[in-house]
């Protein structure tokens, strides 16, 4: 049945409402607050804390943690919020080029959010870490990036009990997690199995012992020493079984050799897939015959002709040439360095983590791409 509209001959009610509108508005305005309109809103402040962007930060202290690890503490110019286990990039000019590297945050989320302080703990290894180790001193100004990465506890993805497996400087995200659990900014159970060569190589041991309690436990495994109170050998299936709760997810952070060994141990325990997560390591040099290639780089409307080396990634080649290009994870995972391939042959290291659309439309991640011929690429500016 068709709907019948009721025709309204006189819009009396509308006329009456309209007549009252002006005095009503005047009344409302006179009742309103005389305080000036706020210039900032909580939602904007929260957004700024969650996504502070790249910021300058003063290095306020440098402390030795082991013979080859130091903790660098920065005073941030903008407080930030992050999840325990995430990383930031730390950058500085080195020899005329701006260089940055991702480091897991070792300080607690509370310190960054409420005190504007953030620490990273760095092992003396590689170009920038070695430079930091020798040169960085309090008072120096660095560039700190947004908190990034997915190496944190996620209640949807992970079981409530986490077994953390750490090796070498891979202890840093777990130190942050242990601190966060103690201060209450993270809520999960962590059993940390921490492998090192000797007791002297264990970083943060006193603090980890102090933080141990209901929700956090730590087990030390020494490969080159036998000592009472420590497990010896490598982080084996037997050791994991001995300390792990009945049901758990695994988070690992350490060198590739540790991952290769632990993968086999976990497989023998029937654990794999979504229950095992590893923090990606930065892509280093590849072991091939050195060969020089011409690399043409387009950044905005400028063109740079530089040299790339077959052993190094395209990102390293551009940084070496003094180009300011974007990077974060340096492991092919975050997509921040995402660049358009114009021509050339290449090899991707560490497994191809590009999105299907990137593969289809010819985008590469220079941080994990080695040149196999002369190449031409278009790169976003890192300024
Ligand atoms: S820097 Fe993360 S993908 Fe290249």
Low-confidence stretches: none
Which CATH architecture of the largest domain is right?
3-Layer(aba) Sandwich
Q: How much beta, percentage-wise?
A: 25-35%
What spatial form do the alpha-carbon principal axes imply?
A: globular
**Superfamily at the CATH H level of the largest domain?**
Nucleotide-binding domain of ferredoxin-NADP reductase (FNR) module
Average pLDDT: 93
- The number of distinct β-strands equals 19
Global structural class? alpha/beta
Return the CATH class of the largest domain.
Alpha Beta
Helical content class? 25-40%
Bound molecules: FE2/S2 (inorganic) cluster
Helix run count = 10
Q: In CATH terms, what is the fold-level topology of the largest domain?
A: Rossmann fold
**Domain module count:** 3
Textual characterization of the structure:
With 383 residues, the chain is an alpha/beta fold. The chain has 3 domains: 47-144, Translation factors (Elongation Factor Tu (Ef-tu), domain 3); 161-278, Nucleotide-binding domain of ferredoxin-NADP reductase (FNR) module (Rossmann fold); 292-378, Beta-grasp domain (Ubiquitin-like (UB roll)), CATH 3.10.20. It has 10 helices and 19 strands. The chain has helices spanning 12-31, 42-50, 109-114, 127-135, 172-183, 205-211, 237-243, 256-268, 314-320, 356-361; strands at residues 55-66, 69-76, 87-94, 97-104, 117-123, 141-144, 161-167, 189-196, 216-222, 231-232, 249-253, 276-278, 292-299, 302-309, 339-343, 346-348, 363-364, 369-371, 375-378. The strands form 4 sheets. The protein has a 6-stranded antiparallel sheet. β3 (87-94) and β4 (97-104) form a beta hairpin. The radius of gyration is 27 Å and the shape is globular. The termini are far apart. Residues 327-330, 332-337, 365, 367 line the site of FE2/S2 (inorganic) cluster.
